[in-house]
From TrEMBL:
Residues 1-63 are annotated as: Disordered. Pfam families: RNF157-like_N, zf-C3HC4_3. InterPro entries: LOG2-like_mRING_C3HC5, MGRN1/RNF157-like, MGRN1/RNF157-like_N, Znf_RING, Znf_RING/FYVE/PHD. Residues 15-26 have a biased composition (Pro residues). It comes from Arabis nemorensis. It catalyses: S-ubiquitinyl-[E2 ubiquitin-conjugating enzyme]-L-cysteine + [acceptor protein]-L-lysine = [E2 ubiquitin-conjugating enzyme]-L-cysteine + N(6)-ubiquitinyl-[acceptor protein]-L-lysine. Pathway: Protein modification; protein ubiquitination. It comes from the Eukaryota. Keywords: Lipoprotein, Metal-binding, Myristate, Transferase, Ubl conjugation pathway, Zinc, Zinc-finger. Belongs to the RING-type zinc finger family. LOG2 subfamily. This is RING-type E3 ubiquitin transferase.
């Protein structure tokens, strides 16, 4: 066999590559761009349960508050607000709704109104849409409907007029419900304002949509907000004893008494709500960020504490 000839043989060192699996606690300068995974605030198995052992340092401070009971004599049920045809005046529509009142009082309906001082209403188109006021007795589940001839003619409205009203802080429809009986508990008259805007539905008919409800009690103004899920927490004469859905969505044992803001889901008990602050800033129901927790206790009669 012949000899293989050629130049002198030299061994070249192989190129150096970093370890593809660096240790978790390697110095950051050695493995640029690699970071160990952050600990999860949730247990990976079973239902959503707060990790009670180690608070998460990444959670923001969530404020927790308790409710203060305010006695409201009159309440307009905003989901009942609608327009019905005026049978005596074709083309006009009358505002109707259902309300509860523990005292007698008066209801004022005003179109194109601006909110004034001490929760009063100021009409901006009194010449076109006169204000109407009627009295009512005490009673629960009362039906209100404007008197014939005092309603609104939608054909007299233009889209530009409605838009201009919104931009200038004028509500298309406003209802003021005010208690008339003297009560030593109240320094000023107890009143509730309901503001609504006019919108067209798919059939091109105008509908009223409530955008704000305000309560004026003893010189203080309160903006009312609906709490989602509070209805399931009330028991009436034990009829709902076996109804499901009252338990905290986290521990599934304690009754719900805490509402998450700003989404307003009443879904947790007080204990789990306190732990939530150290675990996450997301609502357990809708996953929206949480900035405030409100504790609400509802007794058997349905009164908030």
């Amino acid at each position: 066999m012949g000899n293989v000839t050629g130049g002198n043989r030299r061994d070249h060192p192989s190129p150096s590559y970093p370890n593809p699996n660096p240790p978790l606690h390697a110095p950051p300068s050695q493995y640029q761009g690699y970071y160990p995974p952050l600990p999860s605030p949730y247990h990976r198995q079973g239902p959503w349960v707060p990790n009670r052992a180690t608070p998460s340092p990444f959670s923001p401070d969530v404020e927790q508050q308790k409710t203060v009971t305010i006695r409201n004599h009159i309440n307009l049920k905003n989901n009942t607000l609608r327009f019905v045809p005026d049978e005596d005046n074709p083309g006009k529509f009358l505002l109707s709704f259902t309300f509860d009142a523990t005292v007698s009082g008066s209801i004022t309906v005003m179109f194109f109104a601006r909110e004034g001082q001490e929760c009063n209403l100021n009409a901006t188109k009194e010449d076109l849409f006169p204000t109407s006021t009627v009295s009512f007795p005490r009673g629960v589940g009362q039906k209100f409907k404007q008197a014939c001839g005092t309603g609104i003619d939608f054909s007299a409205l233009s889209e530009a007029e409605l838009v201009e009203a919104n931009e200038t802080g004028v509500y298309h429809v406003a209802v003021k419900a005010e208690a008339s009986e003297d009560d030593p508990e109240f320094i000023t008259p107890n009143r509730q304002l309901t503001h609504a805007v006019l919108e067209k539905d798919k059939g091109e008919e105008y509908k009223a949509r409530v955008v704000k409800q305000i309560l004026w009690v003893n010189g203080n103004k309160y903006v009312l907000q609906e709490i989602y899920g509070i209805g399931n927490t009330v028991e009436v004469n034990g009829e709902d004893e076996n109804e499901t859905g009252k338990e905290c969505v986290i521990c599934l044992t304690e009754p719900r008494d805490t509402t998450v803001f700003p989404c307003r889901h009443m879904c947790m008990c007080n204990g789990c709500a306190k732990l939530l602050r150290f675990q996450t800033n997301l609502c357990p129901i809708c996953r929206q960020p949480v900035d405030r927790l409100l504790e609400i206790t509802v007794n058997a009669s349905g009164t908030n504490q």
